[in-house]
Each structure stands twice: as structure tokens, then as C-alpha cells.
Design goal:
binds NADP nicotinamide-adenine-dinucleotide phosphate, alpha/beta, 19 strands, FAD/NAD(P)-binding domain
Length: 364
């Protein structure tokens, strides 16, 4: 008898299990809950391991500040709405600025994703604060094992595990992680070590520019180091950074070594030139790496087909089916192109609708 073929009496098979806790996951959960499937959502664990890997629950939105491009949340005084929608317990997870009343702001990323979580819960989603550490998709019902060792069986699964920050891969980067080297400006930027001292941000996309802008609030100066001589970031963000007197662009360079000592952590960075200039050393109290993201697929143990860049492959164009019937995908873990919260949320709803159709026609 295979491991998935459990005795009938012990079977508690869920209709829909969602893995993840960003906009794709919550939107999938809202749709599945409203379709009366009472989905189980593995939102992830608040563990040191996840902290280190950048895979804490609530996804990348939880590491941002104001989100200006999510439709439905124009700038305004959102404090009363947030506290009444979220209640005291979940409001406590938000940065204090997000709840300041009498101030007009765009919605904060952590607040936006908390609202989504609350909405899913309101419709009956059951939330498990554990990671899924392994899966068996070889036959139905699918078997999922949580970080607490518990097993859950599911008729359908929606994978919405998102993506996490990429690193340069330098030994000195590893040596100084959390001692001046970081990937989450919003999480770490206000730490005393960065106050009124220079900081380096590496990258040329929206994340790098946004991080530079945020860090400029605390630092004496922010060097934005990019490997080309033009930004990839969107015009509106790029223009803001260019107009910020504290941000200096350092073009055509990549970090060769992050400099520091055991006592002080990061003290600077040595930059190689990609156009044949001599190396350049900059003094800095921190180096923030903002060079993109990689999809979170390790727990799948190779059981879903991936694209050549390691994202989960959608086997039907514009839909959410994967290489295993009954397993659907949503959000950044399958998105090599758009990687926007609104796109992730939309794909989550599609995955739930696809799962619903699958369950209606599947005889298991
Ligand atoms: P990204 O757009 O992929 O940009 C990554 C940047 O890092 C690029 O400039 C790239 O250089 C550089 N890079 C990559 N590998 C590198 C390496 N090994 N060494 C040095 N530089 C390296 O990633 P992102 O900025 O994280 O943005 C991801 C997605 O999220 C995008 O779709 C973006 O629009 C979205 N996003 C949106 C917002 C917003 O709308 N407010 C905020 C953040 C992110 P090249 O340019 O040479 O390739």
C-alpha cells in the first residue's frame, strides 16, 4: 500500500489547500472560501530560518512601506478603517506609521496584506502558521507535511509561495549578513547603525530605487550602485531618486568585496568596474542587496515542472494549471514577468476558480 493510500476511517481530506500568504495566496483563499471549500492556508512560520532566508509569512508586501499602485487605495487617512477591519490583535503587526490618524498616506504593504488575510478569514479560511516542508504529488489525495510534522491530505493544492531576495554570492556578503548586509531596507533601515552614515544599495530596478529612497531618510548619503549606466526602474520611481540630493548613482560597477571587521560589521565596499576603470572603495555602514528575487520552490522536491529560470511552469497559457493535475499555481512563484501585487492577487483568484472546476469534474 502506498503512503498516500491511507485507511478510509483516518482520512480527513481537504478540498483546497493553499500554500503561501501573499496577495496570491489570500486571494485564492478568499475565492475558495466563498465557494464553500473552507480552504486550509499554510501561511508559513515566523522562524529564524525564514527570517534568514527572507521567507517570513505575508510575503514581499510585508517588507515594503507605502503601496501607491494597488487599485482601490488612493492616498487618504486610513487609520480608522484599518483598525476596525483588522481588530486589535492583527493591527499590532503593523508598523506604527500605518495606523497614524490625521495623516494622508497610501496603504502600507503590511496593512494591505493583513486586510487580505482578514478577508480570507472572515469567509472561513482556516489558517495554519506553519511552512509546508514536503509534498507528495505522485497520487491523489496529495500529501503535504507541515513544519510541525503534521500531515494534511488534499484533493487540490494552490501553490502561492512567492519569491525571495537574491544575493550576490560573495563570501563577504555571507560573513556580514545582518551585521550591515541586508536585503530588506524597510525591515532594517531604521537601525541605529545606519543613522547619519553612508549606505550602499546594489541594483537598478524598482526595489533598489525604492530602497535607496527609503534609506535616504536615515543615512547621511545613499550610493546606488548599478552594473549598467541606466536604471531598469520605472520612470516615476527613478525620477524621485534622481531628485533626492542624498542619493548618488554609481554606474557600471559591481561589489567585489564587502569590507568590514568582526567588531564593527560592514565598514565599506570595494567595487569592480565593468568598463575597465580601477576599483573603487566606498565607506558605508551597510550594503543592501536589491538585485531581484528567486522563486520559493525548494519544498516541492522537483515534483512540479519548472521553467528554465526555476519558476513553476504553467502548462496551459494564461491559466494556473501545473504539470500535476489538481495542483495550481498563483503569484510570483510562477511570474517571470510582472511580479506585481495586483497581478498576484488576480492569479490567486484564477487558481481558486480553476481548482473549483477541477473539483467539480474530478471523481476523487
Ligand atoms: P528587477 O527588476 O529584476 O531588477 C534587478 C536589478 O538588479 C536589475 O537592475 C539588474 O541589473 C540588477 N542585478 C541582477 N543581478 C545582479 C547581480 N548579480 N549583480 C548586480 N546587479 C544585478 O528586480 P526588482 O527591482 O526586485 O523588481 C522586481 C519586480 O517587482 C519588478 O517587476 C518591479 O517592477 C516590481 N517592483 C515594483 C515596485 C513598485 O511598483 N513600487 C517596487 C519594487 C519592485 P540589470 O538592470 O542589468 O538587469
Amino acid at each position: 500500500m502506498s503512503e498516500n493510500a491511507i485507511p478510509e476511517l483516518e482520512k480527513k481530506i481537504e478540498n483546497v489547500v493553499v500554500i503561501g500568504s501573499g496577495p496570491a495566496a489570500w486571494s485564492a483563499a478568499i475565492y475558495a472560501a466563498r465557494a464553500a471549500f473552507a480552504p486550509v492556508v499554510f501561511e508559513g512560520a515566523f522562524s529564524g530560518e525564514n527570517q534568514e532566508a527572507g521567507t517570513l509569512p505575508m510575503g514581499q508586501l510585508a517588507t515594503t512601506t507605502e503601496v501607491e499602485n494597488y487599485p482601490g487605495f488612493p492616498t487618504g487617512d486610513l487609520a480608522t478603517y484599518l483598525t476596525s477591519a483588522l481588530g486589535d490583535e492583527r493591527s499590532a503587526y503593523l508598523p506604527p506609521e500605518a495606523l497614524e490618524s490625521g495623516v494622508r498616506r497610501a496603504i502600507f504593504g503590511p496593512a494591505l496584506v493583513e486586510l487580505m488575510r482578514r478577508q480570507a478569514e472572515n469567509f472561513g479560511a482556516r489558517i495554519v502558521s506553519e511552512d509546508v516542508v514536503s509534498v507528495d504529488f505522485s497520487q491523489r489525495p496529495f500529501r503535504l507535511t507541515g513544519s510541525d510534522g503534521e500531515t494534511v491530505w488534499a484533493r487540490s493544492v494552490i501553490v502561492a509561495t512567492g519569491a525571495s531576495a537574491r544575493w550576490l554570492g560573495l563570501p563577504s556578503e555571507t560573513r556580514f549578513k545582518n551585521r550591515g548586509v541586508g536585503s530588506c531596507a524597510v525591515c532594517d533601515g531604521a537601525l541605529p547603525r545606519f543613522r547619519n552614515r553612508p549606505i550602499v544599495v546594489v541594483g537598478g530596478g524598482d526595489s533598489a530605487v525604492e530602497d535607496a529612497e527609503y534609506l535616504a531618510k536615515f543615512a547621511s548619503k545613499v550610493y546606488l550602485v548599478h552594473r549598467r549606466d541606466a536604471l531598469r526602474a520605472s520612470k516615476i520611481l527613478a525620477r524621485r531618486a534622481e531628485a533626492n540630493p542624498k542619493i548618488e548613482f554609481v554606474w557600471n560597477r559591481v561589489p567585489e568585496e564587502i569590507l568590514g571587521t568582526d567588531e564593527a560589521g560592514v565598514t565599506g565596499v570595494r567595487l569592480a568596474s565593468v568598463v575597465g576603470e580601477p576599483t573603487l572603495e566606498l565607506e558605508a555602514s551597510g550594503v543592501f542587496i536589491a538585485i531581484g528575487h528567486r522563486p520559493n520552490v525548494a519544498f516541492l522536491g522537483g515534483q512540479l515542472e519548472l521553467t528554465e529560470n526555476g519558476f513553476i511552469k504553467r502548462t496551459v497559457p494564461f491559466r494556473t494549471e501545473t504539470s500535476v493535475a489538481g495542483v495550481f499555481v498563483a503569484g510570483d512563484v510562477a511570474d517571470e514577468r510582472y511580479r506585481q501585487a495586483i497581478v498576484a492577487a488576480a492569479s490567486g483568484s484564477c487558481a481558486a476558480l480553476d481548482a473549483e472546476r477541477f473539483l467539480a469534474t474530478s471523481d476523487e
